[in-house]
């Protein structure tokens, strides 16, 4: 018999099995708790709840460790590519050269979107937030791909996954083009996944677009840093939507909607706006005090994390990527100095030290994306583009689990107990 934990409830002594993973916290299997005690666990925000079993991504928040199928994010960011990391997340192992070439070829053959889908953009205002457009367009994909929405068919699941990974750059670039009134470009499959995206975003029909290798590499690395991250809010949204049997396009649209929030993926946009509001380093102390003031809703965007109570390893890589892009484009941005000074001051402030608040993946990403040329409202779109591979990998892992059931949490009810209806004439 494996380890057990004991629980005494209403005079009964109960035991629940402890399940061990390959690494990380063990879990207490409480699936029989309600049937045996008539009680639920209570964990709003899921601070102590494992919602599933997964073999994709492991995070040790205390040590600042992030592994994708066992490989450290720092090594993947340094030596891998987004396409290779996508293959790894989807298939569990690093690909051979042939496997990688075949995967890249397959993805490249799904980069176009249905011509009628381009008309959907016309329904939006030009100043619509591109995340609103992403929610609409990705959700609408299920109206075009009925041949890959049977989630019980592994082949259709694979095609839908490839379509989503392949089309996100095209959809995202088109959202940007629509916002600036420029023509949408078709994919050029002679380019890399990331080079294709950069050209569709910044290229114009009137001239050849030259992909700058250093920018392509930096963008590709940024995609790697955002690919997957265990059971974060948007991934949990995708899993919950998928647990009802919803088609994968609808599930990813749900994930995009959740990612948009400023507490989650929207923090990269909010962080750069915050840095712009702070402006110069001499104004940092005022904002640090505001962040510490319980009566002030202001928070340091790009700081803090539910899991990382040490440095977010992605932030480290992102900071060095800022320098690379500045050098490649021969640009500077005083906000980078402000960001580094803000980090230095915050990390030496007792409040941030006591609450273990460190920069997260969103703290520096805005500075580098802005240097590459993206407007602030495109930052979360880029996060969604990259996280799509994590979402579809997590969705596939869940759907292919024969024991999967619909997710249906319960509650602690604190509303009125039963009472009789009072006719209007008597109220
Ligand atoms: C992402 O989950 C993931 O993996 C997400 C992500 C991914 O890859 O999917 O990593 C991507 O979403 C990164 C996080 C981006 N969000 C932000 O940068 C927004 C700013 N940060 C926070 O709002 C906050 O830190 C969260 C949402 C990230 C985490 O929230 P928690 O875990 O619920 O923590 P909390 O809000 O309960 O904060 C704990 C304490 C609080 O003080 P007390 O009530 O204990 O006195 O720390 C304080 C908070 O007030 N605090 C902050 C702060 N973050 C937390 N104070 C000032 N500034 C901040 N940024």
From TrEMBL:
The record's catalysed reaction(s) read:
oxaloacetate + acetyl-CoA + H2O = citrate + CoA + H(+)
SUPFAM superfamilies per the UniProt record, alphabetical: Citrate synthase (SSF48256)
Pathway(s) per entry: Carbohydrate metabolism; tricarboxylic acid cycle; isocitrate from oxaloacetate: step 1/2
Q: What start and end residues bound the annotated signal peptide?
A: none
Q: Which InterPro entries does the record cross-reference, listed alphabetically?
A: Citrate_synth-like_lrg_a-sub, Citrate_synth-like_sm_a-sub, Citrate_synthase, Citrate_synthase_AS, Citrate_synthase_bac-typ, Citrate_synthase_sf, Citrate_synthase_typ-I
Gene3D superfamilies, per database record: 2.20.28.60, Citrate Synthase, domain 1, Cytochrome P450-Terp, domain 2
Quick check: keyword Transferase in the entry? yes
Alphabetically ordered keywords of this record: Acyltransferase, Transferase, Tricarboxylic acid cycle
The protein's matches in Pfam families, at most eight in alphabetical order, are given as: Citrate_synt (PF00285)
Q: Which GO terms describe its molecular function?
A: citrate synthase activity
Among NCBIfam families, the record links this protein to:
cit_synth_I (TIGR01798), PRK05614.1 (NF004126)
Q: Describe the family membership recorded for this protein in Swiss-Prot or TrEMBL.
A: Belongs to the citrate synthase family.
Write the protein's name. Answer: Citrate synthase
Q: Which organism is it from?
A: Novosphingobium mangrovi (ex Hu et al. 2023)
